[in-house]
């Protein structure tokens, strides 16, 4: 599972771009208890969502020209320039060239062969988020894509991902592991876009999951505070209880109340 023992190719940051940062701050505070701290006068309005002083994500207000409100997941890279070049060579594109971020690291925004945006973060002073896998923090990602094999090949070349099919009642789930990893270090999955239970016609996208102590309460709070329940809380045997949601501005995310691990797991 995802931890802050970051390895190359694994998620180490995420942020939300939203049409109303003040509204988003209020929404996520009510859902997860997040507090917002500005990154400073030179940050262009960017700031950090925090739990007990530990950063769980970033956020900023964006314009319609920058795209619809959404969550962006970043993956660790030791060389953002090389990763951007690899993405282009593998048939993807560079949406934002690698750039320095106030001495904290280097970032770039890329897109895969299906057009899904994702970020890379080359650590400087900041390694990544301060907490993962705990309630209120990132714990998993899913990539909904039209072609599993093509996506797996792209991310293998760009981020070193390894994939493994895991059988479950009714089918096979494609898990993502970092290069040289194992099922215990997996951090996400690849899902055929056609199998998306919410909207198979919505296009390919990357979905972050946040751990929640009470999945049903988060879903209720989302609806009460102007968000949308895209998929109601649902039990997945051996995994936990999940729900797919969107904040009031349209940024999609999911929450999971993970099933207790069996002895010897993890």
Secondary-structure map:
Elements: E1 11-18, H1 21-32, E2 35-38, E3 47-51, E4 54-61, E5 70-76, H2 80-89, E6 93-100, E7 105-111, E8 117-123, E9 138-145, H3 148-159, E10 162-168, E11 171-177, E12 188-192, E13 205-211, H4 215-224, E14 228-236, E15 240-246, E16 252-258
Parallel strand pairs: 1-4, 5-8, 9-12, 13-16
Antiparallel strand pairs: 1-5, 2-3, 3-4, 6-7, 7-8, 9-13, 10-11, 11-12, 14-15, 15-16
Helix pairs in contact: 2-3
Tell me the strand percentage band: 35-45%
Order of helices and strands: EHEEEEHEEEEHEEEEHEEE
Structure classification = alpha+beta
CATH superfamily annotation of the largest domain: 2,3-Dihydroxybiphenyl 1,2-Dioxygenase, domain 1
Structure, described:
The protein has 4 helices and 16 strands. The protein is α+β, with helices and mostly antiparallel strands and 266 residues long. The chain has an 8-stranded mixed beta sheet with strand order 2-3-4-1-5-8-7-6, covered by helices on one side. The radius of gyration is 17 Å and the shape is globular. It starts with 10 loop residues before the first strand and ends in an 8-residue tail after the last strand. The mean pLDDT is 93.
